[in-house]
Write a structure and sequence with these properties.
By secondary structure, this protein is α+β, with helices and mostly antiparallel strands. 49% of the residues lie in helices and 19% in strands.
Length: 316
């Protein structure tokens, strides 16, 4: 029988995780190969025993079970939604209407700036999948580092909990990624989208009746108000952060003015630097939110995040 170490949690995870699925598939393939090779060598051997017969008979049973797990893993990998395409390959447009049908697939996907892909890359990956099979193509992409939503390690590209939403609005198909969603058939919605064949690739869903908008992970409104005021705020926040050090330096040097000047200069120097780094990191997300806002006009709407949905007692 297969031991506990072969329990594959990726098959039962609430959110599909392509990295874990591929890791488990690699492990299962390696184990199947090892057991088959061992069985073959033993079958060719002239030195056999009852103990070894039982051992390699259990290997055969294990191979059968591992082959079943392999099929389940490949089916899960094949069912993984199309990769996020960020930023949008074309200018966003507004579509509105009644949701005819809608389904959700929970998955971990990468929405980091460094993982943004293009429509051309998306089409190339689709062609590869159509030609050689999804499972093999997905593995090849990961090994080549070309599957952006997977990331090379958890420490490089963060995978976020998200939902792949697909359905029909006024008879036309739509699909896309958002952080979470709670939209039901029959609801009136607005969507930020780009044309995609006979349907739409969507990037946001707004529900006017609820004043709620569902956005991709990390996509948020900028809190910038102006260069001068933002820098002043950054300096003030840095001064607050460094205040404990001011007390320590004051206690050690017993010089109030020198201690205050040191902390003030450090705040003036570090505050804008940290602000610049934050702006550089968050800028693409702010810019993308602005593109969505330009077509949906989201003043008065509340962005619904996974955390807010859980806080309201609803399961995403």
């Amino acid at each position: 029988m297969i031991k506990q170490k072969y329990f594959l949690s990726s098959l039962d995870d609430e959110y599909l995780d392509l990295v874990d699925l591929l890791d488990d598939l690699s492990m299962v393939n390696s184990d199947i190969k090892f057991r088959k090779k061992s069985n073959y060598k033993y079958s060719q051997s002239e030195r056999k025993s009852k103990i070894d017969d039982d051992k390699f008979a259990s290997y055969t049973q294990a191979i059968i079970q591992l082959e079943e797990q392999k099929k389940r893993l490949e089916a899960k990998i094949d069912s993984f939604p199309p990769l996020p395409v960020l930023p949008s390959p074309e200018p966003l447009i507004k579509i509105s209407g009644t949701v005819d049908e809608i389904t959700y697939t929970k998955a971990l996907a990468c929405f980091d700036v460094g993982a943004y892909t293009t429509m051309q890359e998306q089409l190339e990956r689709k062609c590869n999948r159509d030609n050689i099979g999804t499972s093999v193509a997905m593995v090849a992409q990961v090994l080549a580092g070309s599957a952006p939503h997977v990331g090379k390690t958890d420490n490089v590209w963060q995978r976020d909990k998200s939902m792949y939403v697909q359905g029909k609005i006024d008879g036309k198909p739509f699909a896309g990624w958002v952080e979470t969603a709670d939209v039901q058939p029959g609801e009136q919605v607005m969507m930020a989208a780009v044309p995609n064949g006979d349907g739409y690739m969507i990037y946001a869903i707004a529900v006017p009746e609820k004043n709620i908008v569902y956005l991709p992970p990390k996509c948020r409104r900028s809190k910038k108000s102006g260069i001068i005021s933002d820098n002043i705020r950054a300096i003030a926040m840095m001064h607050v952060v460094l205040s404990p050090f001011f007390i320590i330096i004051l206690f050690m040097s017993r010089g109030f003015l020198n201690s205050f000047l040191f902390i003030f200069i450090a705040s003036v120097f570090l505050g804008p630097i940290i602000k610049y780094r934050i702006d550089r990191r968050e800028g693409p997300y702010w810019a993308f939110f602005q593109k969505i806002d330009d077509v949906l006009h989201l003043d008065g709407y509340t962005p619904m995040t996974l955390w807010k949905l859980k806080k309201n007692g609803k399961r995403p």
